[in-house]
Amino acid sequence: MEKIISITAQNVCRLDELLRKKIPELIKKEISNSKIRRLIVAGAVEVNKKQCRIPGYELQEGAAVKLHLDEDKLFFEKTPDDIAFEVTEKSVLFEDENIIVVNKPSFFPTEAGMVGSRDNLHAAVIRYLHSKNPALRNPPYAGVMHRLDRETSGVILFTKSRSVNAPCHDMFEKHTARKVYQAVVCADRMNKKISEKNFIVRMFMGRISAKSQAAKWGSVSESKGGVDSVTEFSVLKQIELSGKKYFLVEARPLTGRTHQIRVHLASVGLPILGDELYGGKTYWRIMLHACRLSFPHPVTGENMTVSCEFSDLAVK
């Protein structure tokens, strides 16, 4: 049930600082800084009878602050349907003293998010490395160099030594590391891109959803902050899943924007199966898989390619 809380600023201060101090006193519960920020950004706060969505807004002495607070919603934490996963020798695709490359499963985040207790692949890699050398007094190092979305499976690289962080960062930043994905897309044979077999999508991209809503990206002009994005695609074959026909597409991103492959495919009428955010049909997961990573070894310079099968192409 929503309650309205009125607070008066006693001196000049930031809006988030005032709420951080006053809300726990009024509701008799601790509240995190991130929740306070979300309240403000979501439009639940008024300053002098006007909605304010700026956490750092500077209040003047005597300012009247009104907070619309629904404690049930505020303190509800959605439990993600993450799988339980441990890195084993079977899921390690390559390892030496400098790097480790792992086959990430779907429904497992790459790294820790806002929910501190949530397990993730980065933590699982550290546990695996520690299990190989349990005599270490402290957990071994593992560096995150790139990420895959939670539902995206496939090849992902971590560093094992800080000394190779810089060259690994550079190869992803400068795109000397080349990623190749496979995606199952919803389409019929009349789609122009399917008939072309090979095509390129290029657009200026940016966030198109409000900050208070689920993050969604799309076409945004350069003048409004959009950034250039390019992906090469090849149509591999038609496949059948659960009695329905789809197409398997290979994607080779030449830039690294958030949701880039998902947005690019949806923009040409080929949304990924399971990707309901971008118009795909309902499925048990988003059918996007990082199947191959090619890169120069950060120490030897040797050109390497690590790959893994898209195992979830089997009917679920």
UniProtKB/TrEMBL annotation:
Top-level EC class as recorded in UniProt: isomerase
GO molecular function terms attached to this record: 23S rRNA pseudouridine(1911/1915/1917) synthase activity; RNA binding
EC number: 5.4.99.23
A biological-process GO annotation: enzyme-directed rRNA pseudouridine synthesis
Transmembrane segments: none
Annotated RNA-binding S4 domain residues: 13-80
Protein biosynthesis in keyword set: no
Keyword annotations of the record: Isomerase, RNA-binding
A Pfam family per the record: S4
InterPro entries the record matches: PsdUridine_synth_cat_dom_sf, PsdUridine_synth_RsuA/RluA, RluA_PseudoU_synthase, S4_RNA-bd, S4_RNA-bd_sf
Keyword ATP-binding carried by entry: no
Superkingdom, taxonomy of origin: Bacteria
Family listed: Belongs to the pseudouridine synthase RluA family.
Protein's name in the database: 23S rRNA pseudouridine1911/1915/1917 synthase
Source species: Treponema rectale
